[in-house]
Amino acid sequence: MDDDIKTTAEAIEGDVLPRMHEVHADPENCPGPDCVPDRLKQPVAGKSAAQWAYERLIMYIRNFEEQLDSEHEVAMGFVGGNAGVLRIEGLGFYDPDIVTFYGTDASGARTQLIQHVSQLSVMLRAQAKPSADVPANRIGFRLAADLENT
To answer: Is the pLDDT of residue 81 over 70?
Structure first.
């Protein structure tokens, strides 16, 4: 407990602004997001569940990519099923409660996952890029740039 005295406005703001906290076993290798975009620091009240999930997923994907070497890309493992892995090539939302992932599976087939936010469970995985001749695709950085420009 801290002894800081807060105004009513500061107390109310503290209840509506998003918070984040992570602890890791190795303090030198913390995979959690180290910077939160300004857009995610805004009150949650004006956002649908889908938009809020979409924005936070972007932050996690971008942070995950920052830790990858040049030979790997971000992919998503399907939790709770044996549908395999989706190389993430796009992400979107449909208000009020749908998040969708676009990409390709291990065989190269076009894949789309449409998920209700109440069922959202995503496992990010490092996957070898499909060709050594091309740079790794960094979708998280494009998604984050789009967030900042909208």
So the answer is: no
